[in-house]
Inverse folding.
């Protein structure tokens, strides 16, 4: 069921991205934003590279945060973290009670993903989680007409669009994700690089 709620200009959003894949444990960083204007906090945890613990770790990180009760939405940079550690967005929504918006710069190449998953003994399980995330929709945010691609859990399309437009201030990628990416790569690599 999709949550229907009024989107306030200072809606509290948690954007989560992962760091560079340098070790067996991969850092994930969450930034708590009020709308797209300012950051209220930073969360950090670790997941297993190519593991299956991303959903559980995110749930724990969110529920144990002092920001949990203020948050209204979770934003993810895709559904695979730390290599092929797939996030079950339906479970993340169910366990945290927070709607989930997945943002992608480009539409995933499912043939390549399916092929890569053949190298995992539990590739079919991962594939089911990927397919369970639902339909990928194209959205033009108004920033240079550049499209982004989204998936969602627990939130309607109109609210997704409102939230993305509200938070996409400097690029087509919402600020909570853009800043989470900068922090995660900066901490891991010594300097931020790449695109969220």
């Amino acid at each position: 069921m999709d949550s229907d709620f009024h989107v306030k200009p200072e809606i509290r959003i948690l954007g989560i991205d992962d760091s560079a894949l340098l070790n067996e444990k991969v850092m994930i960083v969450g930034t708590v934003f009020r709308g797209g204007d300012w950051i209220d906090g930073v969360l950090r945890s670790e997941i297993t590279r190519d593991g299956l613990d991303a959903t559980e770790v995110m749930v724990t990180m969110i529920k144990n945060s002092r920001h949990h009760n203020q948050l209204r939405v979770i934003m993810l940079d895709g559904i695979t973290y730390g290599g092929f550690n797939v996030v079950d967005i339906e479970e993340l929504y169910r366990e945290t009670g927070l709607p989930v918006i997945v943002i992608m710069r480009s539409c995933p190449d499912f043939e390549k993903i399916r092929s890569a998953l053949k190298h995992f003994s539990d590739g079919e399980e991962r594939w089911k989680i990927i397919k369970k995330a639902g339909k990928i929709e194209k959205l033009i945010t108004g920033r240079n007409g550049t499209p982004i691609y989204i998936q969602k859990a627990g939130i309607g399309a109109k609210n997704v669009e409102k939230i993305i437009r509200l938070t996409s201030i400097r690029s087509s990628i919402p600020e909570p994700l853009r800043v989470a990416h900068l922090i995660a790569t900066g901490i891991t690599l010594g300097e931020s690089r790449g695109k969220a």
Summary: The chain has one domain: 12-187. The domain at 12-187 is CATH 3.30.2170.10 (archaeoglobus fulgidus dsm 4304 fold). The chain has a mean pLDDT of 93. The CA atoms of residues 12 and 70 lie 6 Å apart.
